[in-house]
Design goal:
With 415 residues, this protein is an alpha+beta fold. It folds into two domains: 196 residues; 164 residues, Heat Shock Protein 90, CATH 3.30.565. 70% of the residues lie in helices and 9% in strands. A five-stranded mixed beta sheet has the order 1-2-3-5-4. The chain is rod-shaped, with a radius of gyration of 40 Å. The C terminus is likely disordered. Keywords: Kinase, Membrane, Transferase, Transmembrane, Transmembrane helix, Two-component regulatory system. This is histidine kinase. It catalyses: ATP + protein L-histidine = ADP + protein N-phospho-L-histidine.
């Protein structure tokens, strides 16, 4: 069924159409002022000077009223509940505006020359045409404007008692009907544009929702995999050695503490770090600080400000946390250190995080060659997956682990 062009659109579309109409009002104010002043200057004579001056004042006041009315509703916003009431207000204002403009015929046609009358009709024709572009988004507003203007103008022309003006009156009616037909096409085009914009916005919203669901699914899968590989593996290993009686209560407690740390770090990695390495390190310090204190190890925090890493998302953040957690765990379990120093620096193209201890040290190559170097291999694997570099410098006086993180993704997988 074909839609009635004079029927108002649904509320969401109508609100946008009204915003278009109200936004157009400002562009008509100055031309209307100039046209009114031009009429006063050109057509004024002893017979109509007072009436034309009053008409000019009413035109200016009417336009100012329409302008401030439009600005008010644009600034306060248009709700769905206000839309139909606002249409009624605008229909009244535009009918009044059209009547004021067409009153120019009543003020001047009997008192000016044919040239002046031609000017009057030229101005009224221009007003009718320009109103189409201003009001067409809500077609009933333009129809009311044209009907009000035609009613006043045509009635005056027929009362002139001249066949030529009767013909001009009929021509004015034909012109008004033609403008309504053109306005109908413009209104349909404006409606289609608004509908397409809403459909595009809805499509983007659906895509964002799908992307968010996919991201959540990927994060859940990543978290489950990491818990399986990290926490799950630690618990299974602890269970086996406990079952065989190879751990005492203190060692079991240490294993469980490590598992709890694993779980907390996995959860912390889900929090947004906003590309801030320092925030990530602060999270690690908060989680591992109590464990260091209970082990009698002093933590020196010499972290300096470093540039943000735009590629630092939850997945990469967890890799970094795991690398550094493994470093702390190795120090606690194997080095007999009494102090750990955490520091940062900026190298060309890199951000470096250093963890230094004063423990007994170890031979890195021997640790990697022996089967017991699984933790080191895990650290290297995680570093490689994020394009980072991992270096050890160890001696009997202690060990320094340096994790170099690329500033830009272009440096990923750099050697």
């Amino acid at each position: 069924m074909k839609r009635n062009p004079l029927r108002l659109a649904e509320d969401r579309i109508l609100v946008e159409q009204l915003r278009l109409v109200l936004g157009n009002v400002g562009s008509s104010v100055i031309p209307a002022f100039l046209a009114a002043i031009l009429m006063l200057w050109v057509l004024s004579n002893a017979d109509n000077q007072v009436g034309l001056a009053l008409w000019c004042v009413v035109v200016i006041l009417s336009k100012l009223g329409c302008y401030f009315h439009a600005r008010y509703h644009l600034s306060t916003g248009i709700t769905f509940g206000q839309a139909h009431r606002l249409v009624g207000q605008l229909m009244f204002l535009n009918a009044l505006d059209a009547a004021i403009w067409s009153a120019l015929c009543w003020v001047t046609l009997d008192t000016v020359s044919m040239t002046g009358r031609s000017l009057v009709f030229a101005v009224l024709t221009g007003i009718a045409g320009s109103s189409m572009s201003l009001l067409a988004p809500v077609l009933p507003l333009f129809v009311v404007f044209i009907l009000a203007e035609l009613l006043v103008v045509v009635s005056k022309l027929f009362l002139m008692g001249d066949g030529s003006y009767d013909a001009l009156g009929l021509a004015s009616i034909l012109y008004g009907v033609t403008l309504i037909g053109q306005a109908r096409n413009s209104a349909q085009a404006a409606s289609v544009a608004v509908v397409l914009r809403f459909e595009l916005a809805d499509s983007h919203a659906r895509l964002r929702e799908i992307e968010q669901r996919q991201t959540l699914a990927q994060e859940r899968q990543r978290l489950m995999q990491d818990m399986h590989d990290g926490l799950g593996s630690s618990l299974v290993s602890a269970l086996r050695v406990v079952e065989h009686g190879r751990l005492d209560e203190i060692e079991v407690a240490q294993v469980l503490k490590g598992c709890i740390d694993d779980l907390k770090l996995a959860i912390d990695s889900m929090e947004p770090v906003e590309a801030d390495v320092l925030l990530l390190l602060a999270t690690l310090r908060f989680r591992l600080g109590p464990r260091l204190a209970s082990s009698g190890i002093t933590l020196r925090w010499d972290v300096k400000n470093v540039p943000p890493l735009e590629w630092l998302d939850p997945k990469n953040a967890l890799h970094i946390l795991r690398i550094l957690q493994e470093a702390f765990t190795n120090i606690i379990k194997h080095t007999h250190a009494s102090e750990i120093r955490v520091a940062t620096r900026v190298d060309p193209g890199w951000v470096a995080v250093m963890i230094t201890d004063n423990g007994s040290g170890f031979v890195v190559e021997d640790a990697l060659q022996r089967g017991g170097g699984k933790g080191l291999f895990n650290q290297l694997s995680r570093a490689a997956s994020i394009g980072a570099e991992l270096l050890w410098n160890s001696s009997p006086a202690g060990t320094c682990l340096t994790l170099r993180l690329p500033l830009q993704r272009g440096n990923m997988n750099a050697t």
